[in-house]
Amino acid sequence: MPTMGALHAGHRSLIARAVAEHAHAAVSIFVNPLQFDDGDDFARYPRPLGEDLATCEELGVSTVFVPSAEAMFPPGSSTTVSVRSLCAQWEGAARPGHLDGVATVVAKLFSLAGECAAYFGEKDFQQLVLVRRMAQDLSLPVDVVGCPTVRDAEGLACSSRNSLLSPGERDAATVLWRALGAGRRAVVSGETRPEAVAAVIADVVRSEPLAQLDYAAAVDAADLRVPRTCAEPAALRLLVAARVGPVRLIDNCAAPRPTEAVPPRGAAAATGSVEGVAASVGGE
Questions:
Q1: CATH of 2-147, one of 3.20.20.140, 3.40.80.10, 3.40.30.10, 3.40.50.620
Q2: Integer Cα distance of 7 and 59 in angstroms
Q3: H or E segment at 119?
Q4: CB atoms inside a 10 Å sphere around CB 166
Q5: What is the pLDDT of residues 262-271, one digit of tens each?
Q6: Could you tell me which residues come within 8 angstroms of residue 220 by beta carbon, excluding any fewer than 6 positions away?
Q7: What residues are annotated to the active site?
Q8: Is 245 left (phi over 0), alpha (psi -120 to 50) or beta?
Q9: Which pLDDT tens digit goes with each residue over 35-74?
Q10: pLDDT tens digit string along 9-21?
């Protein structure tokens, strides 16, 4: 399981699954400089290595790999990996070079690990889709396993960046989950226009004074493109990104195709409860 450390409940769920399903579970902890387009963001990224090592030991991890930047990218390194069809939109557009950095470091970790299963959280859904495509395109002997998001009681997806939020900002950040719930309810109610679903999500985010919307979208879960209608793709995914205070957060959820939609029932539907996704494998 590749991580950038600052292990939280989402990471713990991935590690626990890996340990349960395999005789040997390995975790990498590496804050990848190629994933950051902002030097300040890289500098303030949390690095509680002692706590992370204790977590890995507690959960039964066999091997923890904690390389230096110089070991991963020796002087003169010039090779990068890019999944072009998936790097130009959403997180790729918002954070130039970020997804190339993810693909490059994960390809290197896969090369070092050899044949394995790799566990990634669905919170970073674009990353998960990208890593699966890269492994398939490069014929890497890796089974990429996506795992559901872990959320707190208010629906906020676990993220290492949550530690940078003030209490008020953390409360405000739950607007992402509420917005996704509103978007999902729109699809369940029969809305087939992706742009209309995106507008519903965006309006909820904009209702929170501390949140600044980056993007909202309803996309094909296979390639992250906006379909002509929400009924077109085999699986629909709702995406949202916003800055809350100084912290940029992303979230997503599955939504039923309109032909599969059913009227919402009970408290779960009322709060926009949806399938989740969690901490990333290179994840945050």
A1: 3.40.50.620
A2: 12
A3: strand 116-121
A4: 13
A5: 554 443 333 3
A6: 226, 227, 232, 233, 234, 235, 236, 237
A7: 11
A8: left
A9: 887 778 888 888 999 999 999 999 999 999 999 999 999 9
A10: 999 999 999 999 9
Give me 15's structure tokens: 């590690």
Kindly report the CA angle at 185 between 182 and 188, in degrees rounded to 5? 160
Give the integer Cα–Cα distance in Å for 32 and 225: 27
How far apart CA 132 and CA 143 sit, in angstroms, is 8
Q: Identity (one letter) of the amino acid at 168?
A: G
**């959820």: which residue's tokens?**
253
> 176 is written with which tokens?
């992402």
Tokens of 190: 């029969």
Order of all β-strands in the sheet with 2-3:
2-3, 26-29, 63-65
- Topology of the domain covering 160-270: Pantoate--beta-alanine Ligase; Chain: A,domain 2 (3.30.1300)
Sign of CA dihedral 255, 182, 262, 190: negative
